[in-house]
């Protein structure tokens, strides 16, 4: 192996019981709870070798997918010592392959202490990828708002899951650009503390709200980064012409929004195009060359040979968000355009959504008593 190739591994796990059927078709015929319980006792394993990643600068990286057969529900319900042992076991598999950096994906990056215990028990660096996830979430939401002719300076934005690690730094970025920001989470005390920290930075008004539906009814821009495993936003909750960037995995936005509301632009957050001709060897529901931002952060750091614990724990610094975004541009990573439920949204569809939103708004004005 060439010494100048960046080497990483990335941990993947099923988000739904249905995901097991991607590799094990027989699980479709079994009760969901039974499948989860059986796979709970199967240790992590090597899934595939990732090749073909070439930066715009010419440097290369290779990696490995490590699979952990635990759903979000299993991760949340299991004792933390058990979960940590599985994550550390997966990290040691990464070490065995020659990886120098281990990226935690989906729910494994938020369970427990968000990678700190894992990092202390491995001989390689660990990152959750949350810095680049935050950077691309806000970038995508504001780009979508621009396409829908929503001017941030005069708009209301709501961040669902604002007190989480990603939500807090996304709120910090949005506070500088939107006319009104609604911070949404379950714990009012934590919301008030975040609002107090952000008010000196704000462009406009900052409010707190524990009722998700009430908040999103007032927002033109909605960013969802909650760690909730259930759907939080339904079709009737959103105002015509709203932009919704759903970063959460599992998703916070019901698929019914897409099916029933032709006047709402819903986009998946943090879908990134990787430079070169990457071969992942795994069907994780994305088109060729596309990955989520948390994995992209891991690859970017490997290309830089930045084998360090880059993003760990609850707090994400704005400086690191800006740094990883700069490194992404250097190496040729970019947002893949708008996508929704793993399907591309083209310009014609955006125009149809805008027309439908204008029509609904006109009807609402006409019918207003």
List the helices and strands and how they pair.
Elements: E1 6-12, H1 32-40, E2 45-54, E3 60-67, H2 72-77, H3 80-97, E4 101-104, H4 116-120, E5 125-127, H5 130-147, E6 156-160, H6 165-175, E7 180-184, H7 188-198, E8 205-209, H8 212-217, E9 221-224, E10 243-246, H9 255-260, E11 265-268, E12 271-273, E13 276-279, E14 290-292, H10 293-303, H11 318-331, E15 334-335, E16 339-340, E17 343-344, H12 347-367
Parallel strand pairs: 1-3, 1-4, 4-5, 6-7, 6-9, 7-8, 9-10, 10-11
Antiparallel strand pairs: 2-3, 2-13, 12-14, 12-15, 16-17
Helix pairs in contact: 5-6, 5-10, 5-11, 10-11
Can you put this structure into words, describing what you see?
α5 crosses α10 and α10 packs across α11 (318-331). The longest helix has 21 residues, at 347-367. β6 (156-160), α6 and β7 form a beta-alpha-beta unit. Helix content is 37%, strand content 20%. The chain has 2 domains: 6-130 and 274-335, no CATH class; 132-270 and 338-367, Rossmann fold (3-Layer(aba) Sandwich). The protein is α/β, with parallel strands linked by helices and 369 residues long. The protein has helices spanning 32-40, 72-77, 80-97, 116-120, 130-147, 165-175, 188-198, 212-217, 255-260, 293-303, 318-331, 347-367, and strands at residues 6-12, 45-54, 60-67, 101-104, 125-127, 156-160, 180-184, 205-209, 221-224, 243-246, 265-268, 271-273, 276-279, 290-292, 334-335, 339-340, 343-344. The chain is built from 12 helices and 17 strands. The strands form 4 sheets. It has a 6-stranded mixed sheet with strand order 5-4-1-3-2-13, sandwiched between helices.
